[in-house]
Amino acid sequence: MHEHFDVLIVGAGISGIGAGYHLKKNCPDRSFTILEGRDAIGGTWDLFRYPGIRSDSDMYTLGYSFRPWTEPKAIADGPSILTYVKDTAREYEIDKKIRFSHHVKRASWSSEDARWTIDVDRVDSGERVQLTCNYLHMCSGYYNYKAGYTPDFDGMDDFEGRIVHPQHWTDDIETEGKRIVVIGSGATAVTLVPELAKGAEHVTMLQRSPTYVVALPDEDALANGLRARLPARVAYGITRWKNVLGGMFIFWLSRKYPAFVKRRIIEEASKQLGPEFDVKKHFTPRYNPWDQRMCLVPNGDLFESLKNRSASVVTDHVDTFTKTGIRLRGGEELDADLIVTATGLDLQVLSDLEVIVDGDKIDLAQTTSYKGMMFSDVPNLATSIGYTNASWTLKCDLTCGYVCRVLNHMRANGYRQCTPRIEDPNMEREAWIDFTSGYVQRSLHKFPKQGTRKPWRLNQNYALDLVSLGLGRLEDGAMKFEGEKRAAERR
Prior knowledge:
Blueprint: E1 3-10, H1 14-26, E2 32-35, H2 44-47, H3 59-62, H4 78-91, E3 98-99, E4 102-110, E5 115-122, E6 128-138, E7 162-164, E8 179-183, H5 187-196, E9 202-207, E10 213-216, H6 221-229, H7 232-256, H8 258-273, H9 279-282, E11 295-298, H10 301-307, E12 311-315, E13 318-321, E14 325-328, E15 333-335, E16 338-341, E17 354-357, E18 360-361, E19 369-370, E20 374-375, E21 381-383, H11 392-413, E22 417-420, E23 429-430, H12 438-441, E24 450-451, H13 462-470, E25 479-482, H14 487-490
Helix pairs in contact: 1-11, 5-10, 6-7, 7-8, 11-13
């Protein structure tokens, strides 16, 4: 006899803790537990330990809708975010629902029984256990915790210093007084460079091509002012919507008038760095704003480290690693004691979970995403995936609320199974997401497709999702509710 739950949540990071809260609040009669493969709460914010780790989204939108962020800094460091997530889990007693060192490997659905059988590896003991549930909610994010992405550069074995990916940063890595090369130009790189530059001999950010970099204050003056005058929840709600709407406007403006937005960003970078800096070469991307995620630098810290010459930026391709550093295609050589490969993440779908429905193994890449959170022809399974153009938690919060709406609808009507099904086989399919970042493009073949119309079209828009997931009809023609229970079971 397997231990059974109404709902199993996979992942005890920021979205898994949010899912636990929503279930406790909106489905208090449902049993659930949270399975976490690691031995700690926090997900990303516990895994990443590299210097300067912080959010690149403001905490008024990355924070939970139900628990105000009350710290002064809107752009928070990793340890502060981890504390916030842990405090939330403890305050709502969600931490008592977590089973650590439980790595979910396989999920098998039986329509006859209307339940999932979950195979779980116990990381601490090495044994495999089985659990069953009626509904499976995956909150494990979309990248591989075991390894980040590092290109196979020529000559890596020749380098006599240390090479480290930020995802695997450890306390024994020496940076004080060292010559450091950080390869990359994304959010991780622009975070690392100014932080490492505080103690290193010199830090070089080596990029193949420029990224949009925007400087903003790390504190939100309006938020702090409101919090001093209004109840915390009221102040938080106002700031949250101010930032949501502001972000939506910038995204719309970037898509509608890309040349204008590009010019303004480049002008601001030029103002920050001064006329002696080659902004055209190092900070003028080839793509339009929001074709990739923009990089946020709080208080312009990256620009400051470049101006005071504790750091520099080089735009070129790696030819080969050498014993003492990196030789570039242009012929320049960069000496280094430490090379940091901030070259991206390795994405995966549902933590590479093996999914089987009624005996058939499902290739998730051949499915179509329903409302950005479920998979065509896969029953009673949802995943929480955040936005690419806004804070992760905004979408996850809506996903968790939708799952609870579905569970309550099923309970009220005696349904056992809900499955998104495509009735028009001629509907065109497109890539899961329209984003040109390398780490996304490398992995798109693993992910489900999206359709060309609702509800198979992925919204990158909080307001549209608020209506669709929070208020939209559950029985919309695509979501099929099936398997009415026997009358005796409903009593």
